[in-house]
Fold this protein.
Amino acid sequence: MRTIEWDGDRDAVAMVDQTKLPGTYTTYVAETVDELVESIRKLRVRGAPALGGAGALGVALAAHRNDATDCEAFAAAVRDDAERVASARPTAVNLSREVETVLAELDAAETVAEARERTLTRAKAVCDRDVERNRRIGEHGATLLSDGDTVMTHCNAGALATVDWGTALGVVYSAQEAGKEVSVIANETRPLNQGSRITTVELRERDVETTLIPDNASGLCLQEGRVDAVVVGADRIVLDGAGEFADGAVFNKIGTYKHAVLADRHDVPFVVAAPRSTIDPETAAEDVEIEERDPSELREIYGTQNAPADVPVYNPAFDPTPMGLVDYVVTETGVFEPPLDRADIAPPDATPAADD
Ligand code: MRU
């Protein structure tokens, strides 16, 4: 199955439960908006484009669960639920963006039944479009890789972080499809270990030679010349900001920034692969909310105490990499070298239309 999709039998949102990986590959079905919001917060579904799918399907779920018969009351209740979905995680712009995309269908609907149908059709279109875009990102990005290259990646920007195929890992899969042998060094990505739990699993499923390293070994790997390119995804790309963010920034999993610094020091290309729906031209870098997660993620490791129970913790989930450290941004429309030109990278119609 796809990472996230509509379950037509139950009128619900089905997802691969990523909290169970690598041990078990199971599906979780969110039957209510509360269950979907909890799934987003707990990272059953995660990764910016997959969160876009969750946001889109979440509006359809809200429309299907709401039993108001009066159109206005129905729309108001769906909007309230949609707001809870959109704010479940703050940093990945795809979540709130695709909630808005599907909410637009409420205005066009004349009956409650039509609103349910329209939101579902639009949500499915958002998901389908994500897969198409990732395929194109992969094809463009693969041109940056040569046969025999080793890519370092951080977190998981693969099929499981998107509706399917992936962004950073999509580049690897497309290179592989083009006949290039590319291997991957996967950073473990503490504290939630998306690299070890998720990236290694999906790379091996696709027969990509994979080596897992602790995050602290990445500098040594670059120093030893083991890496030909660092390729990561993005949760939000902004185009301006103050000081070092004047040309914008890439917000991605915590630790991305230090890999960009290391790649720069070792003259290794630093590549960001993301759909244009991850680009937020409206917000300056300093105004992006960086999600802070629960201290227990550091004080405990899988339920075992890892630190004094009351030690103060700072646990940010993302960091901004200044655009000046990025060599290439790959979107579904091509490969761009920063500084990014607004006209190329984020045309005004970047937000998808239902029948796009
Ligand atoms: O906290 P997560 O697991 O949702 O963080 C995911 C990332 O940081 C990914 O690199 C990013 O969303 C790009 S996914 C194609």
